[in-house]
Amino acid sequence: FRASIRSLPIGDALRSLKDRGVLIAGAIVQSEGAIPAPLAPLSGSVAIVIGNEGAGLSRTALSMLDQRVHIPCRIESLNAAIAGSLLLYEAQRQEAERPHSQDREVVPA
Fold first, then answer.
1. What is the DSSP letter of 102?
2. The model's pTM
3. Are 52 and 76 in contact (CB under 8 A)?
């Protein structure tokens, strides 16, 4: 298995997604006014952005978010891989519950 990897500055990558109509959702700690993941619209054409464990999302990424999402839990923050996994699970759960008639077009990467 081989995959080519293309690296872009975060601002360019998010701008490209926004130009294609993709909603940008960013994982933020609860104290920063984010909405709980189960209440956030994460199905359809959504990009989920996860920051690093130390500094979180960059200022550039934060400025481009359409929605700020947090994972309800008793601790302040999670490992980035765990946070990403939980948000992808929530997005899949919401997608599975969405009526078929509301399907949106999938935007190719």
1. G
2. 0.80
3. no
